[in-house]
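sry for the spam today, last one i promise. struct tokens for design, 248 residues
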């Protein structure tokens, strides 16, 4: 039997990058997949098609993770279609980098809402179902900079550090009901998000990483499969780095 056979996995912000690799990785592990993204672009449609071609059930939902009502409505729609949610992966995230001197209130609010409030919105929306099921695994995508901090990313680092506090609290609060909650802290992963960084800087970073390469979205997806599966049934409240030893 495959690791995630019989489970329904919800991934936010899955049309591209790490979220897409997570959706595909979980489908390959036998799960049915529900995913969200902010708009229905070509990559959204192609992901839905790719997942369904794997012989599992999959459906995408247009939903703004930063919006509480949109998130609650989406979870309601998913439950109508799929009846349960076993794994929630809070992956949607953005950057609006600037030094504090130049950071606007808008940049601060947007990053906090998309990266951190979204985790509250979705976790709250799935909580009732997971309580009823008496099981669930919630996986929040944080970042190494949520642990270490990073110049020029005060908003992003704060949002990712906030996710860690939220994760540990939910692990304690919902643990007695057999609901687990863990955070993943990726290092430097090659996606559209990091393509915004100049190539020279990216090369320099990769050279400083002990494993001497940037991470790939699949490196993160593999950990999600493990944390979503019953193989990790005694692991909760943890922050696990996927960073090639960039942060030890
Ligand atoms: P990406 O920019 O390639 O993909 C993010 C996806 O989220 C996009 O499909 C986007 O449309 C979607 N999204 C954005 N706002 C949304 C919203 N309000 N509601 C629903 N969907 C929304 O980014 P990437 O690199 O795949 O990042 C995924 C997650 O991993 C993010 O939380 C990011 O902060 C985190 N991360 C990424 C790292 C990297 O090196 N790429 C390192 C550490 C963490």
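last one done:
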């Amino acid at each position: 039997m495959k690791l995630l056979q019989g489970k329904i996995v919800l991934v936010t912000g899955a049309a591209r990058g790490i979220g897409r690799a997570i959706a595909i990785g979980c489908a390959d592990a036998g799960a049915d997949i529900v995913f969200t993204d902010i708009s229905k672009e070509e990559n959204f449609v192609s992901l839905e098609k790719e997942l369904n071609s794997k012989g599992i059930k999959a459906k995408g939902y247009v939903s703004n993770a930063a919006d509480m009502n949109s998130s609650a409505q989406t979870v309601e729609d998913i439950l109508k279609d799929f009846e349960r949610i076993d794994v929630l992966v809070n992956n949607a995230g953005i950057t609006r980098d600037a030094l504090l001197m130049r950071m606007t209130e808008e940049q601060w609010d947007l990053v906090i809402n998309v990266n951190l409030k979204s985790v509250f919105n979705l976790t709250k929306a799935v909580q009732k179902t997971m309580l009823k099921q008496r099981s669930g695994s919630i996986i929040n995508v944080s970042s190494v900079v949520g642990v270490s901090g990073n110049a020029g990313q005060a908003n992003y680092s704060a949002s990712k550090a906030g996710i860690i506090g939220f994760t540990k609290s939910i692990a304690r609060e919902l643990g007695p009901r057999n609901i687990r909650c863990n955070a993943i802290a990726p290092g430097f992963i090659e996606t559209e998000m990091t393509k915004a960084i100049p190539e020279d800087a990216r090369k320099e970073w990769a050279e400083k990483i002990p494993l001497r390469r940037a991470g790939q979205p699949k490196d993160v997806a593999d950990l999600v499969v493990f944390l979503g599966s019953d193989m990790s049934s005694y692991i909760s409240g943890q922050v696990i780095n996927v960073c090639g030893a960039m942060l030890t």
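The longest strand covers residues 179-186. ok im logging off now
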